[in-house]
Design a protein that fits this description.
binds zinc ion, six-stranded parallel β-sheet, globular, two-stranded antiparallel sheet, 10 strands, 10 helices, alpha/beta
């Protein structure tokens, strides 16, 4: 098996389709020794005034968006309590409590998030940039796809700067899906190679691992996030990597891990991080 842990998963109550109990059973059946549940931790005071919020309401996953830390805590506390209970009931598999975090660059966010971590005591934090703040609102990759080229380029530039700030914050155990805009076929032109390389250098300097996220294979590019051009840079700077499925349902647990592992190796990646090193990374930087 390419990796005996899977730590990037989502469950019902956020934007996943299945319960933690079912995800844990699926991980056991797939042969994993450890599963981490990492639902979205998203707090932004204006999030309900965005275009994407309307789409989330229509899609039935708007509960993952919060306008205050108290609101997020009210969802995560019972969720984490359930995971603790499930660990007691399932001693044969290790169950970790994570979160996939969107960081926003304000003091209010930093203070609120520090308080949330003190209360929830997550086992690990995944740093992610699903959003860019542009023109007084918060946009996602679908919004980026809908604007004209000049604005889109400005947004993509902000996207990569956000990734760099995530890395520099030293708050995260690893960084998720580096080239997420690829979801809408954005940011793939060679002109973006320079900022990608600059970002990989910053990542290498910080020592933070990055994931090879197999949900990228869903979009028909035959590439995970990140794609092979960034994989080659990761290999060049010897950045540590792990494989993630980003499973939003039981069928995707461990999906394409072997494929991702082989593709990573074929692009020169040798530095696969151990579970212990991954979990210790944030402690080292705090
Ligand atoms: Zn994500
Ligand atoms: Zn995710």
């Amino acid at each position: 098996m390419a990796q005996d842990f899977t730590l990037h998963t989502h469950t019902i109550g956020f934007d996943g389709k299945n319960t933690p109990e079912h995800m844990i059973a699926a991980a056991r059946n797939a042969g994993f020794k450890t599963i981490g549940i990492s639902n979205h931790f998203i707090v932004h005071p204006e999030i309900r005034r965005t275009k994407m919020y309307g789409a989330a309401v229509a899609g039935g996953y708007s509960t993952m968006y919060n306008t205050s830390f108290d609101e997020a805590l009210a969802k995560f506390q019972p969720h984490y309590d359930e995971l603790a209970r499930l660990q007691d009931e399932n001693p044969d598999i290790r169950i970790l409590r994570g979160m996939e975090v969107d960081r926003f660059p304000t003091d209010a966010w930093a203070d609120g998030f520090a308080r949330a971590c003190e209360i929830l005591k997550p086992d690990y934090l995944i740093g992610a940039a699903h959003f860019v703040e542009y023109g007084g609102t918060v946009c996602n990759v679908h919004d980026m796809a809908a604007v004209d080229a000049k604005i889109r380029d400005e947004m993509l530039n902000i996207y990569w700067k956000n990734i760099q700030e995530l890395v520099k914050s030293g708050m995260f155990n690893w960084i998720a899906h580096l080239d997420l805009p690829k979801k809408k076929n954005l940011g793939e032109h060679r002109k973006w190679d320079a900022i990608k390389r600059e970002t990989i250098k910053i990542i290498a300097k910080s020592g933070v691992p990055v994931e090879i996220n197999t949900s990228g294979y869903k979009i028909g590019t035959l590439q995970p996030y990140p794609g092979t051009n960034i994989m080659k840079m990761i290999a060049e700077y010897n950045v540590p990597v792990l494989i993630s499925d980003d499973a939003h349902d039981v069928d995707r647990i461990g999906r394409d891990f072997q494929l991702a592992f082989v593709q990573a190796r074929n692009n020169g990646i040798k530095n696969f991080v151990s579970l212990q090193k991954l979990l210790d990374f944030r402690k080292k930087t705090l």
